[in-house]
Each structure stands twice: as structure tokens, then as C-alpha cells.
Amino acid sequence: MTALINRYRDLLPVTDATPVVSLGEGGTPLVRLDTLSERLGLDLHVKLEGMNPTGSFKDRGMTVALSKAVEDGAEAVICASTGNTSASAAAYAARAGIRAAVLIPEGKIAAGKLAQALIHGAKVLSLEGNFDQALDMVREVVERHKVALVNSINPYRIAGQTTGAFEVCDDLGDAPDALCIPVGNAGNITAYWEGFRTYREAERSRSLPKMFGFQAAGAAPLVLGHAVAKPETIATAIRIGNPARGDQALAAAADSGGAIDSVTDDEILAAYSLLASTEGVFCEPASAASVAGLLKRHAAGGFAEGDRVVCVLTGHGLKDPETAIGEGAGVVNVPATLAAVEEALFA
Question: Which long-range contacts (CB under 8 A, 24 or more apart) does 299-303 make?
Fold first, then answer.
């Protein structure tokens, strides 16, 4: 196992004194979507971040954040989370042998993510409020106690997440024409843009992509131009009404010639089902916001014929099994006879 930190050590804020806390993160597949590429007239790829150890892109940042926390002598870490951060923080804290605590919005976390945080031994607090209130709370905690904050406001998290852009360039031989990515707390679009620029400055790529970030319509403060007090969307991972890195996300879109837009829950679920049924790719609903946004933008003539586009799928579909079961065709119950099975199969 080669730790992600070691693969890109010269581009990350680590030294020989930094203990590497790793679970074998990174190196996730970049898969070409052959059917959709032909249908849309694009060279379309998806970055399968659900193949990271805890099933989401958060592991890229968490390996660096936990490594630096241990180096700094932290005995515990804390985060606010809609799910994936809590799972990743709990796993990497367990790996490092330190404690983890997470604050989650009450009733706003998918079962698969909650299960991960609990089994890794984190202290999980369900806050009677939303994610933004939870983040405010953990910020106050770290000011009063010697606990490391590992949300995406932690610069080491962003540094680790730049490696996603490095890998895209490595796999394609250069940056794509455009990158589509879900936007929740806005750390990932910030990190990818920083990563593409870093790679070009290091002369490991030649070009920069246009950055397109997509929020859920019920949680789209960057599109609306103001915070959303009560964000609502089926895409729980991006159900955030006041993103901590919102200004940086807007800058990434503007500086690259891209945009921040929103997609409805219906559009997200349509893309979610399309990926699974057409390409065999199973991601969590929030991940599908990138593809929903691509389809929306393509329909409006937003891409040129043959553009190479990468959509980041931030988490695995098993993070949220309830949505998959609800959107699927359902289970057909039949008697235990061959006749009944044949009738159900071929009638």
C-alpha cells in the first residue's frame, strides 16, 4: 500500500517529521462513460471517489488532516458533518489511535454514514439544528479545548483533496476541458481548482479546466446569493445553507470561466438512476448532482462537440441505501415453484 501522501509528497504540506496516517486512499478509477459519451457527443468521464476506503472523497483530505493533527500532538479530533466527513474522521482517528467526536444535524444523515461513524468508535452527537449550526458549535469547541477541527475549513483537508485533480491529470495526460462537481460546503471545488493550478505550475499539466459546481436547488446559497436558513434536499451530503468556502467556490468558477448552478432533486435522482442503469455506476444522490448539472448545461448548449468532461462522483451509493431501494424497481415476491418463477420472469 502506497499512501496518498507519499505519492504526492512534494506537493503537499508535509515533512519527514509528519507521521503518515493512511488507509490506502486515492488512486480512484477515472471511468469513461461510453454510452453517455456517444449520446451527448462528449468525451465524458467520472471520477469514482466512492472507491476510497470509507466510500467518499473525504479520505483524501482526512489523511493529511489527521497526519498533521498527530504531528501537532492532538489527542482528539472533531467535526460537524452531514455524514461523509464523520465517517472519514472516525476511521482515520481510529487508525491514528486518537479519539473522534462528530456533530450531525438531527435526522439529516444517511444510515450508511452514521453506521460508519459509530462502528469506528466516534462520539456522535445529534444536534437539534442544521449543519451550519453544528459547524458554528464545533468551531467554538476547538477554541476552548485542545481538539483538532477536521472540517474543510482546515487547510490540510483542502491540501489533501487537491490530489483528486492531480490524479485526473495523470490519467488523462492533461486537465480536461471542464470539470463538474457537487457543491455543499464548497471545499472540494476549491481544492480541485487549487490542484489543477498547482499541477500546471509544477509543469505536470498544460491547461486548466472550466469549473462547474452544482448545488441542490433546496440548498443553493451560492446561486441565490444569500444563506439558506433551512436547506432541504434528498442529496443529504450537500444539504448546507451557508458553505464555509463559498467565496472560494465562486472565485474558482469565475476564474476558470465556469459557473455555479443548481439542480432540482428530480434532476439529481434522474441522473442517479441513469448512471446506475446505463453505465453500471452506483453513487450516492449528492454525487449525481455533478451529472445532473452536466445534463442541464449540455441541454442548454453549454459544451462543444467532443469536449472532454470529468464529473466527480463524491461518494458510493451504499452510503444511502434507503434512496436506492426507494428509486429501484422493487422486489417481486413469488411462490417457491418453477411455474411461478417463470411467470414472473417471462410473462
Answer: 303/40, 303/42, 303/177, 303/178
Sign of the dihedral defined by the CA atoms of residues 169, 174, 175, 177, in that order: negative
Give the span between the Cα atoms of 312 and 275, in whole angstroms: 13
Q: Report which of 252, 328, 261 is spatially closest to residue 289, judged by C-alpha positions.
A: 261
Domains of the chain, residue spans: 4-56+158-327, 58-155
- Please check whether residue 20 is in contact with residue 70, taking contact to mean a CB–CB distance below 8 angstroms: no
Residue 272's Cα: distance from chain center in Å? 14
Proportion of the chain above pLDDT 70, given as a percent: 100
- d(CA 268, CA 294) in angstroms, rounded, equals 11
Instruction: Let me know if the fold of 4-56+158-327 is the same as that of 58-155.
Output: yes
State the Cα–Cα distance between residues 306 and 124, nearest whole angstrom.
47
Q: What is the DSSP letter of 275?
A: I
| Span 11-44, pLDDT tens digits | 999 999 999 999 999 999 999 999 999 999 999 9
Cβ count near 326 (within 10 Å): 11
Select from 3.60.15.10, 1.10.760.10, 3.30.70.890, 3.40.50.1100 the CATH code of 4-56+158-327: 3.40.50.1100
Q: Round to whole Å and give the CA distance between 323 and 101.
A: 27
Fold classified for 58-155: Rossmann fold (3.40.50)
pTM beyond 0.90: yes
**306-326 confidence digits (pLDDT tens):** 999 999 999 999 999 999 999
Tell me the three state secondary structure of residue 213: strand
Q: How far apart are CA 86 and CA 76, in angstroms?
A: 13
| Cα separation, 79 vs 101, whole angstroms | 7
Nearest C-alpha neighbor of 73 from the set 103, 98, 39, 51: 98
Point out the least confidently predicted range of 22-26, 229-233, 270-274: 229-233
End-to-end CA, the chain: 50
**Triad 221, 227, 228: Cα angle to 5°:** 80
